[in-house]
Fold this sequence. Notes:
It contains twelve helices and twelve strands. It is α/β, with parallel strands linked by helices and 321 residues long. The longest helix has 20 residues, at 291-310. It starts with a strand and ends in an 11-residue tail after the last helix.
Amino acid sequence: MKPKVLVTREVFEDVLQCLSQYFEVTSNQSDVVMDPETLAAKLSGKQGAIITLSDRIDAALLARCPNLKAVCNIAVGYNNIDLAACTKAGVMATNTPGVLDDTTGDFTWTLILATARRLTEAEAYLRAGKWDGWKLKQFLGLDVHHATLGIFGLGRIGQVVARRAIGFEMRVIYHDVRQAVPEVEQACRASFATKEELLSQADIVTIHVPYSPATHHLIGKSELGRMKPTAILINASRGGVVDDAALIEALRSGTIAGAGLDVFENEPKLNPQFLELKNVVMAPHIASSSLATRHKMAMLAAENLVAALTTGKPPNLLNPV
Length: 321
């Protein structure tokens, strides 16, 4: 008898076909988000699951699912998974690193350019029928070329963003928990800076760190106050890394010039005050959302699950079990 697995959200048909070669698959192609009670009920009797950021895997759920052996996240981030609880329960947890780096880096640049040049504000003005001709001072924005780009987190995605900056002839500085090796700094043409130096010197601050207790509100009122009033903040990492309430106040008061956001605290429950602001560009957590990349992510999650339940050695294991 094949092991039973659950796919908690809609995936590509060929991913389900791949899984069905090894498992008895229950899938949620209707893509209805499951609350914790429903998720626990659906996972009952299952040995494995393909999950997403909308699915919380914690001790309470694991206690109700004693047959569970592996949960495979379709994401790089895994703050929806309690790794300690998984390890204690003997459940393997995996993620999908590497396959989305370039696409997320590209989208970071989408946010940078749209925010710097006030694109969504200008488009809304045009669509509202307000444009009555060219004006010298209309929608004056920030030049990206030759500007200073400050990157929090020079990991895989941060490095992609830094390398893209070479074409804009930018000065690139970065801050991380440890300084990168010289080879990475050279490839990215990036220089290490303290947190304070980055905030005070960068024209564009972009965040590429995982969410954890250590990075919760990495950017708050104090940090925003250190930035230039002409600077913009970009976040395509995780909600919670930025204090949204503090950011709204900074945008409203002119402490900084603008922000480009793909992620939010408590998403998808967006702070409604963001909608009142013109100087913020927003997207619904789609930085990795190209057809090719999302397909690779789902397929990698499937490969992780197959390996976990057949060999016990998935390629992207996050926790020792």
